[in-house]
Amino acid sequence: MAKEPFTVAAYQAAVARIHKENAAEILKAYLVNKDGEVEKVATMLASDSFTGLSTWRWIDASARTGGKPVYRYYYERLRPKMTPEFAGATANLAGGVTRGGSVAAAPPPPKGAVHSAEIEYALGNLATNKVYAWEPADCQVSKTMQEYFANFIKTGNPNGKGLPKWSTLQDGKVMHLDVKSEARPDQNRSRYELLDELLR
Prior knowledge:
There is one protein chain. By secondary structure, the chain is mostly helical. Helices cover about 40% and strands about 10% of the residues. It is built from six helices and five strands. The radius of gyration is 19 Å and the shape is flat.
């Protein structure tokens, strides 16, 4: 959207400009009905076009031809509030912070889990990051992820005692990792299949 407002008209114009003859099909798959939906849907389209599609192609090919189970996850845990020492700082999209804001100014609320946020959870090193005021729920998510990853490294299967069942992608499910982690049906496949067809 660049600096365009998050309106339906601006979104439709941006998709038409970028995707040209494929715009109608993309607007149908990434449908917005009102201005309040534009930011979320435009972000989904940008994310899918940037890294989502290429990652999906790789995962889908592995699931179809690799002869091994494929376990896919979607990370959802939002980082907690920043510690007082970082008041006025802004969290960057891919980690780190930008200082220089007003101490009195509250940072904008997060719109979702940012790129790379899951790394410190999976590696169990939340305590080394002094920017965020980690909560017990964050430690729970970290513990769950560490157990899944350790199981997978040891056995090729992330499942283990006391963990929610992580179904394979071949079963049409994706593990959503958060305080309540659960495998859910893959809701994005049709979008990726469309982009795969149109953007080759």
